[in-house]
Design brief:
The chain is mainly β and 628 residues long. It has 3 domains: 2-40, no CATH class; 45-333, Neuraminidase (6 Propeller), CATH 2.120.10; 336-616, Neuraminidase. 2% of the residues lie in helices and 40% in strands. It has a 4-stranded mixed beta sheet with strand order 1-2-3-64, with no helix packed on it. The two termini are 19 Å apart.
Amino acid sequence: MSDYKNIVGKPIKFVSSNLDNAEAEGQIWYNSTDNAFKNILISEAWASAANMINTRRLMADFGTNTTAVAAGGDPVPSVPGNLTATEHYNGTGWTTGGNLPQGMFNQTGAGVETAGLSIGGGDPPGARSVKTFEYDGSSWTAGGDLTEEREGGFGFGTQTAAVCAGGESLLPPGVAEVNSTDEYDGTSWTAVNNMTHERYFGASVGHTQTAGVVFGGPSPSGTNVELYDGTNWTSGGNTPSTQKNGQAASGVQTDAFLINAGDSTPTQTNDTSKYNGTTFTASVDTANTKSQIGAGKQAPSTSTAIAFGGLVPSPARVSTTEEYAQSINVITGAAWASGGNTTDRTGHRLNFGTQTAAFSGGGIYVPNPGYTDEKRTEEYDGSSWTAGGSMPADKGRGAGFGVLTAGVVCGGTAGNTTVDTTFEYNGSSWTAGGALNVGRRYQAGFGTLTAGAICGGFPSSPNNGTETEEYNGTAWTNSNALNTSRQTADAAGGTQTAAITFGGENSGTDKLANSEEYNGTSWSEGNDLSTPTKRNSGGGTSVPTTLSLGGQSGVNPPGTGQVEQYNGTSWVTTATMSVARSQIGKMQGNSASGLVNNGANASDTYIVTTEEFTGETSAVNVKTITTS
């Protein structure tokens, strides 16, 4: 023990519980509860992260692992043309950026989030481009043209000192791989010394114009690696496996990560490796096998990395994201898990409570006669649903808020007629509450039994598409109106004095993207959802713990599993629900621990399934020391 103190500089501690992060690093301790010596391990792993907003492959990528940008690319086959959409990753999820001036795919990227480049590419398919577009973090402008058209090239450097090398060019009499190199000064491109090998469709990194590296690609370059010093290209060895294409990379010339070694005929792979400027060492595999992916090319080293989008063996484009990290913490990404199904009914949307003490009831959908308002309710204990106390009268399509032992349902319909009634629940029985000033359905609710509120709703005449009402546990009073008329399936979160509502639809707009924040007196515009959505739902105990769930987006939408979280400033994607669903009641819980049940699936058929949400967690990677 004295030797340990002399070597490490601290003694072995005797404690009754494991140490936390700050104390644990570099320390051995004895846990008297477990009767064992403990220390921590540095873990190395890829973890699932929030999906991209758009499914895509072959996009321009730049930035770091926590400020990554994806622009353009090839979407799902059912979507015509190439994407103009840009997305930003902040280390948690994806948000929408400014659109490219035109659809592009198979470009290369360079630079950082607020000063990036999209270089070359193809648009339309079969044509190569000389175009460069410059990004300032929110919008794109045209830059100088390359000296020759190319797609699938290798880009690195900064917005004002970049390199684009190799790629495919339309040279007579047809397509050819090239080894030409251009340098960019922020205004124009200049041809400089050629690479040794003609190559395209591989990976490249480099924070500066004078220290870049390009990896592989299909024949003729194969496994070859080349280094650039700002003037000349030299050999950098060979990648550790057979020729591949569609890789991605991040880092710097002497500390780079080659991610997902792409296509290796006839299959795709998921191996990764680290490069020190001379040689490669194997790293841990990604969870997903895919190619033609994006990465945060300007990540500072091989201790962190990100991989997103791409093509899976089907072949199909994907929106999945994975993060790599070396850490003393074990990070578990946000995820959905199956819960217990509701009993003999589907589609009820009067919800409140938490993940382990949830309420759901009211109107149901059955094959015959269709949608019916009901008194019956159900309660969830974290594993299964059981019958709850029946409401005083039939009700459906209204709003709910509060907790299981102090909940409120209000408005909605009874026998398909809009009503103004309010019912209060104490966990076993119901009492009548104060009547709404204006009867409405499809409104959103938030807050508690004694400090709650609703907003929006249908019908939108005279004013209840914008009206707000507050509840004090006895009576409703009018407050200031929303800026946008909207009806939703109960999409709001927060408290009576700090809330947010989002998405939905109104008579003039089929699907809304905007959100509004409430300060207890008035509403102000918040940042938009990543995707315009109607018939979505949501919930959260505070504004920054609010999720937007499912709904319908796109053209003739059948429903979506997309989930977004509001971080207090903007909406970012998080783990997608297992079942695409819309017309859900309020989420019970928040972004740390939540529950959704029922709704309509992708075939617009009502469902009985329940899903439980757990937000991202982090815990010290504690190891028990043994003699074996």
